[in-house]
Design a protein that fits this description.
This protein has helices at residues 22-49, 56-84, 92-125, 130-133, 136-163, 179-183, 191-224, 229-257, 266-289, 293-311, and strands at 9-12, 88-91, 171-172. It has 312 residues and is mostly helical. Strands 2-1-3 form a 3-stranded mixed beta sheet. The longest helix has 34 residues, at 92-125. The chain is globular and about 65 Å long.
Amino acid sequence: MRNMTVITEILLLGIPSLQQYKFLTFSLFLVIYCVTIWGNLLIISLVAQSKNLHSPMYFFLTQLSLCDILVATDIAPNMLYVVFNDGGLISLLGCITQYLIFCTSGGSECLHLTVMSYDRYLAICNPLHYNAIMSHMFCFKLILMCWVLSFLVLLSQAIPTFKLWFCGPHVIDHFFCDFFPLIELSCSDTYAFEIETKLSSVTIVIMPFLIIIISYSYIISAVLKMPSLTGRHKAFSTCSSHLVVVSIYYGTMTSTYSVPTKENSQSLSKLLSLLYTVVTPIINPIIYSFRNKDIHKAIDIFIKNISVSKSR
């Protein structure tokens, strides 16, 4: 081990198959990133300023927007640099930091989606006690629990990651520092680290997903028992956006990590990673805003306030 050269920089190859469309790809990803930040900040601003959005569901939505901003800002700026330069160098510390932030934001998003499913479960299956249970303090405790658990996942990943010995090669055929590409650079025995990562994923990814499935099984059962067709449609519409977001998020994540990169097509792996890290954060605010009368009303008020302030 002492005779091995410790690498200090890593070369990210990016997406070589798109190099001939470099400027188009760069422009597209830049627009997606800007719209992602703007759309999620808009959701946060609308919920903060509009009284009709001061409910647990929209409060949880702001936390989901924070997760999307975090993962987009962690991945997109460096990815833009890599795409524009047909590859780019990143320090080993920067690579590990990017991976850890990515783990934290991803785990936090899973937990927030779980909290939102519990909120929908109470609203539909136990509406008479909903306001009493989902108090401001209880909502705050749920959000605090999500972020604390995410931070614990960060610690559980950070400690063994910084103990690894990286001696090369120093090239990653990807546009960001993900789990499988990163551990392939290590000369240490990564077996224990991989086991710890799998155990963390059970706590932060699989268990929340099971809770979401159980919540929706109760929701569907309760909705089907409603005698009114209008009531069924209204109940389903209140959770349809969340269900679509969960399907997209867990679908792309499962497709990306269920099969190791070595057994997967590298191009397919990068495409799935793009959907998971770049496309999903921009889709979430669009899905929650689409056909949402409360948000449409808040946007109208927001635009009117801007017009009034400009006229003054």
